[in-house]
Design a protein that fits this description.
Helices cover 46% and strands 10% of the residues. By secondary structure, the protein is mainly alpha-helical. The strands form 2 sheets. It has a 3-stranded antiparallel beta sheet with strand order 1-3-2. A 3-stranded antiparallel beta sheet has the order 4-6-5. Helix 5 crosses helix 6. The radius of gyration is 19 Å and the shape is elongated.
Length: 193
Protein backbone atom coordinates (compact mmCIF):
# COMPACT_ATOMS: atom_id res chain seq x y z
CA UNK A 1 0.00 0.00 0.00
CA UNK A 2 1.25 3.48 -0.83
CA UNK A 3 0.25 5.79 2.01
CA UNK A 4 1.50 8.81 0.03
CA UNK A 5 -1.72 8.40 -2.01
CA UNK A 6 -3.73 9.20 1.13
CA UNK A 7 -4.80 12.83 1.41
CA UNK A 8 -4.00 13.27 5.11
CA UNK A 9 -5.34 16.84 5.11
CA UNK A 10 -8.88 15.55 4.44
CA UNK A 11 -8.75 13.09 7.36
CA UNK A 12 -9.88 14.38 10.79
CA UNK A 13 -7.48 14.35 13.74
CA UNK A 14 -9.62 11.73 15.54
CA UNK A 15 -11.05 8.80 13.55
CA UNK A 16 -13.23 5.73 14.22
CA UNK A 17 -12.51 2.04 13.69
CA UNK A 18 -14.54 2.09 10.45
CA UNK A 19 -12.43 4.93 9.09
CA UNK A 20 -9.26 3.15 10.24
CA UNK A 21 -9.83 -0.06 8.29
CA UNK A 22 -10.82 1.88 5.16
CA UNK A 23 -7.76 4.16 5.32
CA UNK A 24 -5.32 1.31 5.99
CA UNK A 25 -6.99 -1.18 3.60
CA UNK A 26 -7.30 -3.85 6.28
CA UNK A 27 -10.23 -6.02 7.39
CA UNK A 28 -12.56 -5.04 10.23
CA UNK A 29 -11.28 -7.95 12.32
CA UNK A 30 -7.65 -6.90 11.80
CA UNK A 31 -8.54 -3.33 12.79
CA UNK A 32 -10.22 -4.67 15.93
CA UNK A 33 -7.17 -6.81 16.76
CA UNK A 34 -4.80 -3.83 16.31
CA UNK A 35 -6.91 -1.67 18.60
CA UNK A 36 -7.53 -4.30 21.29
CA UNK A 37 -3.91 -5.41 21.39
CA UNK A 38 -2.69 -1.82 21.75
CA UNK A 39 -0.62 -1.97 18.57
CA UNK A 40 -2.50 1.12 17.45
CA UNK A 41 -3.14 3.32 20.52
CA UNK A 42 -6.75 4.36 20.98
CA UNK A 43 -9.29 5.59 23.49
CA UNK A 44 -12.07 3.10 24.30
CA UNK A 45 -15.28 4.57 25.72
CA UNK A 46 -17.21 1.30 26.29
CA UNK A 47 -20.18 2.15 24.04
CA UNK A 48 -21.60 -0.41 21.61
CA UNK A 49 -20.94 1.72 18.52
CA UNK A 50 -18.23 4.23 17.74
CA UNK A 51 -16.41 3.08 20.85
CA UNK A 52 -12.84 3.66 19.56
CA UNK A 53 -11.22 7.05 19.09
CA UNK A 54 -7.93 6.88 17.18
CA UNK A 55 -5.53 9.76 16.58
CA UNK A 56 -4.49 10.38 12.99
CA UNK A 57 -0.82 10.61 14.03
CA UNK A 58 -1.03 7.06 15.48
CA UNK A 59 -2.43 5.75 12.19
CA UNK A 60 0.43 7.41 10.27
CA UNK A 61 2.96 5.89 12.70
CA UNK A 62 1.33 2.45 12.30
CA UNK A 63 1.58 2.63 8.49
CA UNK A 64 5.27 3.65 8.69
CA UNK A 65 6.13 0.87 11.16
CA UNK A 66 4.15 -1.73 9.20
CA UNK A 67 6.47 -1.19 6.23
CA UNK A 68 9.47 -2.31 8.31
CA UNK A 69 7.89 -5.14 10.34
CA UNK A 70 4.59 -6.20 8.75
CA UNK A 71 4.53 -9.43 10.78
CA UNK A 72 4.23 -7.44 14.01
CA UNK A 73 0.89 -6.00 12.94
CA UNK A 74 -0.89 -8.92 11.28
CA UNK A 75 -3.48 -10.71 13.35
CA UNK A 76 -2.25 -14.22 14.16
CA UNK A 77 -3.90 -17.20 12.50
CA UNK A 78 -6.82 -18.41 14.59
CA UNK A 79 -6.89 -15.23 16.71
CA UNK A 80 -10.68 -15.09 16.87
CA UNK A 81 -11.13 -18.84 17.25
CA UNK A 82 -8.80 -18.96 20.26
CA UNK A 83 -6.45 -21.18 18.29
CA UNK A 84 -3.18 -19.27 18.01
CA UNK A 85 -0.59 -20.36 15.52
CA UNK A 86 2.32 -18.11 14.68
CA UNK A 87 3.09 -17.85 11.03
CA UNK A 88 5.53 -15.42 9.48
CA UNK A 89 4.43 -14.71 5.94
CA UNK A 90 6.83 -11.90 5.11
CA UNK A 91 10.59 -11.94 5.55
CA UNK A 92 12.47 -8.79 6.45
CA UNK A 93 15.31 -7.73 4.21
CA UNK A 94 18.94 -8.54 4.99
CA UNK A 95 19.73 -4.83 5.40
CA UNK A 96 16.84 -4.40 7.89
CA UNK A 97 18.14 -7.42 9.83
CA UNK A 98 21.66 -5.95 9.90
CA UNK A 99 20.26 -2.62 11.13
CA UNK A 100 18.17 -4.43 13.75
CA UNK A 101 21.31 -6.17 15.10
CA UNK A 102 23.09 -2.82 15.33
CA UNK A 103 20.01 -1.28 17.03
CA UNK A 104 19.89 -3.97 19.75
CA UNK A 105 23.69 -3.86 20.16
CA UNK A 106 23.53 -0.13 20.90
CA UNK A 107 20.48 -0.54 23.12
CA UNK A 108 22.15 -3.24 25.25
CA UNK A 109 25.63 -1.67 25.31
CA UNK A 110 25.33 -0.66 28.97
CA UNK A 111 24.65 -4.22 30.15
CA UNK A 112 27.30 -6.87 31.02
CA UNK A 113 28.61 -9.23 28.32
CA UNK A 114 27.08 -12.25 30.10
CA UNK A 115 23.76 -12.10 31.97
CA UNK A 116 21.52 -14.53 33.82
CA UNK A 117 17.99 -15.40 32.72
CA UNK A 118 16.70 -13.34 35.67
CA UNK A 119 18.61 -10.24 34.54
CA UNK A 120 17.43 -10.66 30.95
CA UNK A 121 13.81 -11.14 32.01
CA UNK A 122 13.95 -7.78 33.83
CA UNK A 123 15.30 -6.09 30.69
CA UNK A 124 13.00 -7.53 28.00
CA UNK A 125 9.82 -7.85 30.06
CA UNK A 126 9.23 -11.59 29.74
CA UNK A 127 9.17 -13.87 32.78
CA UNK A 128 12.26 -15.65 34.08
CA UNK A 129 10.59 -19.00 33.40
CA UNK A 130 9.97 -17.99 29.78
CA UNK A 131 13.61 -16.97 29.31
CA UNK A 132 14.78 -20.25 30.89
CA UNK A 133 12.43 -22.19 28.61
CA UNK A 134 13.91 -20.41 25.57
CA UNK A 135 17.38 -21.44 26.79
CA UNK A 136 16.37 -25.04 27.49
CA UNK A 137 14.70 -25.40 24.08
CA UNK A 138 17.75 -23.95 22.31
CA UNK A 139 16.18 -20.71 21.08
CA UNK A 140 18.83 -18.78 23.03
CA UNK A 141 22.36 -20.15 23.23
CA UNK A 142 23.38 -20.29 26.89
CA UNK A 143 25.47 -22.18 29.41
CA UNK A 144 24.74 -23.37 32.95
CA UNK A 145 26.67 -22.17 35.98
CA UNK A 146 25.49 -22.70 39.57
CA UNK A 147 22.27 -24.20 38.21
CA UNK A 148 21.37 -20.96 36.40
CA UNK A 149 21.30 -20.14 32.70
CA UNK A 150 23.92 -17.59 31.67
CA UNK A 151 23.48 -15.92 28.29
CA UNK A 152 26.23 -14.06 26.43
CA UNK A 153 24.94 -10.73 25.12
CA UNK A 154 25.86 -11.61 21.51
CA UNK A 155 23.53 -14.63 21.68
CA UNK A 156 20.79 -12.53 23.25
CA UNK A 157 21.03 -10.06 20.35
CA UNK A 158 20.97 -12.95 17.88
CA UNK A 159 17.77 -14.20 19.57
CA UNK A 160 16.14 -10.74 19.59
CA UNK A 161 16.64 -10.58 15.80
CA UNK A 162 15.35 -14.12 15.22
CA UNK A 163 12.12 -14.95 13.42
CA UNK A 164 10.90 -16.75 16.56
CA UNK A 165 11.27 -13.67 18.76
CA UNK A 166 9.88 -11.24 16.19
CA UNK A 167 6.75 -13.36 15.72
CA UNK A 168 5.77 -13.79 19.38
CA UNK A 169 2.04 -13.15 19.44
CA UNK A 170 1.69 -11.55 22.86
CA UNK A 171 4.66 -9.24 23.08
CA UNK A 172 5.91 -7.55 26.24
CA UNK A 173 5.71 -3.76 26.51
CA UNK A 174 9.50 -3.59 26.06
CA UNK A 175 9.26 -5.71 22.90
CA UNK A 176 6.51 -3.55 21.37
CA UNK A 177 8.32 -0.36 22.39
CA UNK A 178 11.61 -1.41 20.80
CA UNK A 179 9.89 -2.36 17.54
CA UNK A 180 8.07 0.98 17.51
CA UNK A 181 11.30 2.91 18.16
CA UNK A 182 13.30 1.06 15.50
CA UNK A 183 12.07 3.27 12.59
CA UNK A 184 12.91 6.36 14.69
CA UNK A 185 16.42 4.99 15.29
CA UNK A 186 16.82 4.37 11.55
CA UNK A 187 15.85 7.96 10.78
CA UNK A 188 18.15 9.42 13.45
CA UNK A 189 21.08 7.38 12.12
CA UNK A 190 20.27 8.12 8.47
CA UNK A 191 19.74 4.45 7.65
CA UNK A 192 17.21 2.83 5.35
CA UNK A 193 14.96 -0.10 6.22
Amino acid sequence: MNETAINWDSIPEIITKDQLYKICHISKSTALYLLRSGKIPCEYNGKKTRCYKIKKKDVIKYLENRKVFPECYSDPAGWYKGNYSIKLETKISESALKNLRQYYTEMLAQYPDVMTATEISKIIGYGKTTVNNWCNKGYIKSFKRNNANHIPKVYLIEFLCSKYFRTITRKSKWHIGTLQQFPVWLTINGLKD
